[in-house]
């Protein structure tokens, strides 16, 4: 199980690094727009990401 965690973390880092590597100007613009959001909006987006991740995990995990 530990190996799966580290593989998932590695994949997340690869995916998170793609946009700054390929389009740093767009990434910076997007980050500036995110900074303009209110805390509640950021929390809601975070909640949606967590729920989507948990649902995907549940759907893909073996029974």
TrEMBL record:
<keyword id="KW-0812">Transmembrane</keyword>
<dbReference type="InterPro" id="IPR019201">
    <property type="entry name" value="DUF2065"/>
</dbReference>
<feature type="transmembrane region" description="Helical">
    <location>
        <begin position="44"/>
        <end position="60"/>
    </location>
</feature>
<keyword id="KW-0472">Membrane</keyword>
<protein>
    <submittedName>
        <fullName>DUF2065 domain-containing protein</fullName>
    </submittedName>
</protein>
<feature type="transmembrane region" description="Helical">
    <location>
        <begin position="6"/>
        <end position="23"/>
    </location>
</feature>
<keyword id="KW-1133">Transmembrane helix</keyword>
<dbReference type="Pfam" id="PF09838">
    <property type="entry name" value="DUF2065"/>
</dbReference>
């Amino acid at each position: 199980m530990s190996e799966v965690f580290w593989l998932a973390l590695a994949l997340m880092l690869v995916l998170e690094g793609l946009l700054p590597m390929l389009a740093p100007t767009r990434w910076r613009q997007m980050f500036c727009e995110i900074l303009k959001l209110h805390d509640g909006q950021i929390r809601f987006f975070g909640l949606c990401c967590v729920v989507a991740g948990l649902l995907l995990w549940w759907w893909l995990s073996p029974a």
